[in-house]
Amino acid sequence: MFKKILIANRGEIACRIIRAARELGVKTVAIHSEVDKESMHVKMADESVCVGPASSSESYLNIPSIISAAEITGADAIHPGYGFLSENTYFAEVCETCGITFIGPKKHSIEKMGDKITARNLMIKSKVPVVPGSDGPISADDPKIFDMAEKIGYPVIIKATAGGGGKGMRVVVSPEALQNSIIMAQSEAKANFGNPDVYMEKYIEEPHHIEFQILGDMYGKVVYLPERDCSIQRRHQKLIEESPSSFIDESLRKKMGKAAQSAAQAVGYVTVGTVEFLVDKHSHFYFMEMNTRIQVEHPITEVVTGIDLVKEQIKLAAGEKLSFDSSNIKINGHAIECRINAEDPTKDFIPSPGKIGFLYLPGGPGIRVDTNVYSGYTIPPFYDSLIAKIIAHGADRQEAIVRMQRALKEIQIEGIRNTSSLYMKIMENKEFHKGKVCTDFLAKYIFNN
């Protein structure tokens, strides 16, 4: 096991990693920008190092400064969390070169799954279902794109090959909009990922966004855990997740789980990752992408399986063997997670940074809260708006919903706008209670009047 882990991240995920490391008896080092010196993860860690100014490019993405911090403090491993450098192949390679363990998969796994076209072709070879689409990058200047779109069938979606978080994506419903949509997607892709390449896929209407948590050890064993339904989104970014999905039965769960297992085995996957699928209304599922890191929504899997995913991630990176099989995992009840963001849902989710004057977090039976904020803490405007995750666990879906409603009524955050009021509307929605969740849920049932 490692002696000391540097956490190359901030916010609630940094706090989560510190807790896991502490339970394993491992010391922690927090890095922080100049504006994050009062962040909770800095207070919780055994040591802390400032790695630069507020800008992410000069701090949390500053590889030389982060490596220097690890070497100065004697850290023998780095946990990247999610976002920032978590799926950066160069960072993983630098860690390895410097003799520091990167707590994540090997470079080749990140590379193969990080490029969506490479991942797509690999899945086809591994007989994992994929959405019909182009075989490689496309260009607005290529006259063949119109025939390609007609063959795939409108609507189609243009996606960045190196994309994520809904960036570099455009839905196209007619030939007239195709070229301009490609150009816009390319521009957004280059601005966000430094890579302008895009590809084309069939746009699945009324889809369910279903993902499977996978774990792999260094000895070739890969297991999958019960699915998460992440269908409630805005601008292709997840807001609410639940496990298990009300749409998936046991037969489909096994088929998709085996497909996720095959996807991970195809790249020799080690540690923790997530294979994401789109499932249409006829229960046909298609590989979408693989996230080679811990997910924001990992807590709901933890509460329904009893498996601490962050501790498992650390242990697997340290060379330990998996101690369980997919067949051993039992689903214990139902869990729902709401992401509390410092945003104003009544004004198109505009960010709402600022000082929290007063904070009261919910509790009681079946409620877990992962956060890094506290009364008097100032949320900086430079980073992601996520400030807390509320996880409700119940014996069944209805009890989980009732407990989430209770938690959302209890939470008090003064001084900034946040998304808790939106989640209360969703929890009270009749269609949500029926389990009719899909990626256009908000447009259909919440923002339709």
Layout of helices and strands:
Elements: E1 4-7, H1 11-23, E2 27-33, H2 40-44, E3 47-52, H3 63-73, E4 77-79, H4 89-97, E5 101-102, H5 107-114, H6 116-125, H7 144-152, E6 156-160, E7 169-172, H8 178-193, E8 198-202, E9 208-216, E10 222-224, E11 228-234, E12 237-243, H9 250-266, E13 271-279, E14 285-291, H10 298-305, H11 309-317, E15 334-341, E16 343-344, E17 350-351, E18 354-355, E19 358-360, E20 367-371, E21 378-379, E22 386-394, H12 397-410, E23 412-414, H13 420-428, H14 430-433, H15 441-446
Helix pairs in contact: 4-5, 12-13
Describe this structure in words.
The chain is built from 15 helices and 23 strands. The protein has 449 residues and is of the alpha+beta class. Strands 9, 10, 11, 12, 13, 14, 15, 20 and 22 form a nine-stranded antiparallel sheet that branches. A five-stranded parallel sheet has the order 3-2-1-4-5. Strands 7-6-8 form a three-stranded antiparallel sheet, covered by helices on one side. Strand 16 and strand 17 form a beta hairpin. Helix 4 runs antiparallel to helix 5 and helix 12 packs antiparallel against helix 13. The N and C termini lie far apart (55 Å). The relative contact order is 0.12. The mean pLDDT is 95.
Binned, the helix content reads 25-40%
What amount of the residues lies in strands?
A: 25-35%
Task: Give the averaged pLDDT, no decimals.
Answer: 95
Number of strands: 23
